Amino acid sequence: QVQLVESGGGLVQAGGSLRLTCAASGSAVSNFVMGWYRQTPGKQRELVATIASGGSTNYADSVKGRFTISRDNAKNTMFLQMNSLKPEDTAVYYCNAQKTLSLRILDYWGQGTQVTVSA
């Protein structure tokens, strides 16, 4: 079982920066695909960025060039550096860890951290 805890959210003005952290415990996540997702009221949760165990990354078009995902496998931690924030980035941001094990998909989520960007 993996527990994920996000931190680093808050209120920031447009153009500012925030760094989110996802700390994993209970099991090593070095061989999991890790990701950040976000959700606003009334909308589906959407992908922000993912990072594979080897470090390859994938970003939503809306955040390319502004957000950077990274991970520290030794510390069981993942990060999301968010620069040039826009009001439309306002959402609850969730950390995810996923791995396929035999025929099972192990899929873990954190509780979320609120990011609010004021105009």
Explain this structure:
The chain has 119 residues and is mainly β. The chain is built from no helices and eleven strands. A hairpin with a 4-residue loop joins β7 and β8 (77-82). The model has no long low-confidence stretch (mean pLDDT 97).
Shape: globular
Mean pLDDT level: 97
Distance between the termini: 40 Å
| Low-pLDDT segments | none
Number of helices: 0
Report the count of strand segments.
Answer: 11
Secondary structural class: mainly beta
Helix content: under 10%
Order of helices and strands: EEEEEEEEEEE
| Quaternary structure | single chain
Q: Determine the strand fraction and express it as a percent band.
A: over 45%
Rg result: 14 Å
Main beta sheet = 7 strands, mixed
Can you lay out the helices and strands and say which pair or pack?
Blueprint: E1 3-7, E2 10-13, E3 18-25, E4 33-39, E5 46-51, E6 57-59, E7 67-72, E8 77-82, E9 91-101, E10 104-109, E11 113-118
Parallel strand pairs: 2-11
Antiparallel strand pairs: 1-3, 3-8, 4-5, 4-9, 5-6, 7-8, 9-10, 9-11
